Amino acid sequence: MIGVVFALSLLLFFWLRSLPGGVVSALLGERATSASRAALTEAFGLDQPVYVQYLKFLQRASKGEFGVSTGVLPGQDAFHIFLVRLPATIELSICAMVIAIIFAIPLGYLAAKRHGSTFDNGTIVLSLIGVAVPVFFLAFLLKYWFAVQTHTFPVSGRQDAALGCTRTTGFFVLDGLLTREFDCSADALRHLVLPSIALATIPFAVIFRICRASVLEVLDEDYVRTAEAKGLTIQVIRARHVMRNALLPVITTIGLQTGGLLAGAVLTETVFNFGGLGSTLFQAFTNRDYAVLQVLILAAAAIYVIVNLLVDISYAVIDPRVRTR
Amino acid sequence: MNRPSSSLNPMDNRKRRIDELAASSAGPRRGRTDPASGSVLVVDDAGTVDESPGVSLIASAWRRLRRDPVFLVGAGITIVFIVFAIISPWLAPHDPAAGLLLDKVRTQSNPIPGPQPGFPLGADDKGRDFLSRLMVGSQQTLIVGVLATVIGLIGGLVLGILAGAFGGGIDAFVMRVVDVLLSIPSLLLALSIAALASQPSQWTVIIAIAVVQIPVFARLLRGSMLAQRSSDHVLAARALGVKPSAVVFRHMVPNSLGPVIVQATLVLATSIIDAAALSFLGLGNPNDDAPEWGQMLGRSQTYIYDYPHLAIYPALCIILVALGFTLMGESLREALDPKSRR
User: Fold this and answer.
1) What is the ipTM of this complex?
2) What are B134-171's pLDDT values in tens digits?
3) Fewer CB within 10 Å: N-end or C-end of chain A?
4) What does the angle CA B173 – CA B176 – CA B181 come to, to the nearest 5 degrees?
5) A138 touches chain B (CB under 8 A)
6) With the C-alpha atoms ordered B335, B339, B341, B342, is the resulting torsion angle positive or negative?
7) How far apart are CA A81 and CA A77, in angstroms?
8) Closest to B315 (Cβ–Cβ): which among A129, A131, A137?
9) Which chain B residues in 68-97 lie under 8 Å from chain A, judged by CB atoms?
10) Is there a contact between A101 and A210 (Cβ–Cβ < 8 Å)?
11) Nearest to B323 among A7, A115, A128 (CB)
12) How far apart are CA A290 and CA B208, in angstroms?
């Protein structure tokens, strides 16, 4: 697991150094004199061989220093930028996953229960359309209808600056609850609605389909038939016999989808100008901000690894067979 | 025992299961693949059990696909799209690269010429006929989708076969690389690869999307090849003294291709969507003489609030085509899955 992140840091380092343009051109522009270029190159240590740069990077990274941003917020510590932008993306991801899960699992169960019905086919086609619509286009449609045309929800950003809310944790919804400025929380939630719906479509579609397939498989099992034959109530069968078994692959999928949310966040955050990791990542790419890119991509991989670990742990909680092994 | 292919309510479902139980206690359960010979016991609609081992997985899959409305719709969209993409240059009323309405473009007041005689959808910001661009756009879209999928497929095949055929150290190494690639969200990976090129072009887009697919294909192939390493038919081939390369390429790879082909149809859809996303993030093909839907959608963002039709038409085309490929892929997956055979 840690090996994956380590290997990625190596790969990433060489890869970023091979990006064309580079930080010096990005900072100084095309017309810079060769003298000022050389000075800056030396200041960043870019004149040394790549492996020396990498070893230095590792040495500093182990002390928690990831370098200074050159493009996104020039002069700021890259890791600091990451920490500041992280809460926005966590808020957005949690909302999106909650939306995806509360719709996907019940619908998946119902679709499997009514296998072959119009409801089943309808929800499947709906989920497939969800996958087929480009995320940023959906985000634009939502923004166009619900924000620009009808003003039901705010157009962009995380919170209305006019409210003058107090910042404590960086999680705007939580901040409002902690400082008892409930209108701040409500406003932050209203800002979250459209981006989370846009971000939720793909996880919804994938979780729904896995849930449906998994429930379908479990419904055919002998132990469900036995439970039915014993005359257990439908609630008990559903909770203890069907869902508990069917949820295992669903949880894996939820984990994988959570790890991949950052990709969708790049698009939705850019559309809604949300100021989280996704839009930061995009800015870092356009500005060739190595330090920020390294932190963000490593963080994405680390999140993926951690989520996988959580999935494994949740297996042990749900599946007694895993525990006894 | 003549039953509809799908049961409509829970009662039917329960009856069916009881029927099955009865059938299985009386004789071999239907639809089970005999692992040794690969032969299948098939129950046709009249309920007679056909025990001849001649029905292959593909034949029985085709039999069900032919009547599956989901597959027919998906395949219909796909075929129409491919045929249309090939003949579109002859159908388009105007040259998609020629700025025929350039004199109607007013940078300040009206950057997008509206519909007018001969130009039912108007023109884009460079005065080019929008309808013709949409029609001809199908061609580049198809090319991007197919090339990205094929390159990803070839890369995945090479890695997957290496890992699945040799096992051991090579397998461990290849799978580490695949894990690392998989741990980056797919669009981020595509973004980083597209950013590698100093001058973005159609090819950088295609390669960026293709590389993202390689680990997925490699994993799929390796998984099903590893499962076969110890299976009876491979053992039999080895015992007969078949050359190792022939065992891999004639016995293991063909048997592993089913899920890979299904994945390829699904990837066709996602690569068209990803091309649009790259274009939206400014990493698409900057040369738009040969239009592509993703590029058209990505570039329409400048005018999206005033002229949403510039985004909506290419988006609808992408959604329809992606839906077609996905419907086809999903029904293929279901049909080729031995577990879902009944």
Assistant:
1) 0.77
2) 888 898 889 989 999 999 999 998 988 888 878 788 88
3) C
4) 130
5) no
6) negative
7) 6
8) A137
9) 70
10) no
11) A128
12) 20
